[in-house]
Amino acid sequence: MKTAIEDYIVNINKTDWQPLIENGHHYKGIFVKSLRYDEASKRSPSIFLKFEPGAAYPYHNHPGGEELFVITGDCYVNESFLEAGDYLHTPKNCKHAVRTENGCELLFMIPEEVEIV
To answer: Is residue 19 part of a domain?
Structure first.
């Protein structure tokens, strides 16, 4: 097991954006950086997302809830407007869509895999 704190630091400025592709579907205009990969679940429960202007993620469910923090820009979660500095915590099985007109960067913590509805 790693014991140095440096082994757990992720510098997102030194990693490349990857297109968001889930179950073979490419979400155009949305890019991701993994902050923490969980080997047991084979997924990243902590991610950094970048939405280009006009990008949207479809209506979906969060079985384990989620935490979202808007780093830059603004977006809509359903019809609720969020901007830089806003934080959203949703309970388990919360369903919604995300879209942006101007673009944004978001920090997400999603303990369970998202389900497209």
So the answer is: no
Whole-prediction pTM: 0.92
Burial class of residue 93 (count of CB atoms within 10 Å of its CB; 0-12, 13-18, 19+): exposed
Q: Is the dihedral of CA 35, 10, 27, 41 positive or negative?
A: negative
CA distance 60 to 96: 6
DSSP symbols for 29-95: EEEEEEEEEETTTTEEEEEEEEE-TT-EEEEEEETT-EEEEEEEEEEEETTEEEETT-EEEE-TTEE
76 in a domain, yes or no? yes
Instruction: State which residues form the domain around 76.
Output: 27-116
Per-residue pLDDT tens over the stretch 39-49? 999 999 999 99
Q: Is residue 17 part of a domain?
A: no
